[in-house]
Amino acid sequence: MLHKCIVKITDGGDGRCVGEFTVETEHLNRKGSLHGGLTAAILDNITTYALMSKGSHPGVSTSLNVSYLAAAMPGDIVEVDANTVRAGRKLAYIECVLRRKSDGAVIATGGQTKFVDMHQDAKN
């Protein structure tokens, strides 16, 4: 069964994207906290939106990393803040932090490197 997670975009532009979502029952792992796979998927999407807000092609991921630091439980509102560190001609580097809104505790950090040179000459 496919579940949805709605991240509401609250701010952004010029290489940044900020959003938030509420942890729901369908977002949980077997231990009852926010599932790590969903956390990674959200990080992947929000960092891509941050990159696109800089006018860059969304590219393809060459590296995605997540460090899990604290649990988010049902009902918690999680803030997601992504920032484009550098967007070059071929590669872009984006970082991200997920925080529990109620106390600012960092739930996860991470980022990704994306290949963005998608306009290669067709002869290559």
TrEMBL record:
Stretches assigned to the Thioesterase domain: 32-105
Transmembrane segments annotated in the record for this chain: none
The keyword Hydrolase is assigned to this record: yes
SUPFAM superfamilies with a match to the protein in the record: Thioesterase/thiol ester dehydrase-isomerase
Organism domain of life: Eukaryota
Family annotation (CDD domains): PaaI_thioesterase (cd03443)
GO molecular function: fatty acyl-CoA hydrolase activity
Record InterPro entries: ACOT13, HotDog_dom_sf, PAAI_dom, Thioestr_dom
Gene3D superfamilies referenced in this protein's UniProt entry, alphabetically: Hotdog Thioesterase
UniProt entry tagged with the keyword Lyase: no
Entry keyword set: Hydrolase
PANTHER family per UniProt: ACYL-COENZYME A THIOESTERASE 13 (PTHR21660:SF1), THIOESTERASE SUPERFAMILY MEMBER-RELATED (PTHR21660)
Family statement: Belongs to the thioesterase PaaI family.
Name this protein carries in UniProt: Acyl-coenzyme A thioesterase 13-like
Provenance organism: Drosophila lebanonensis
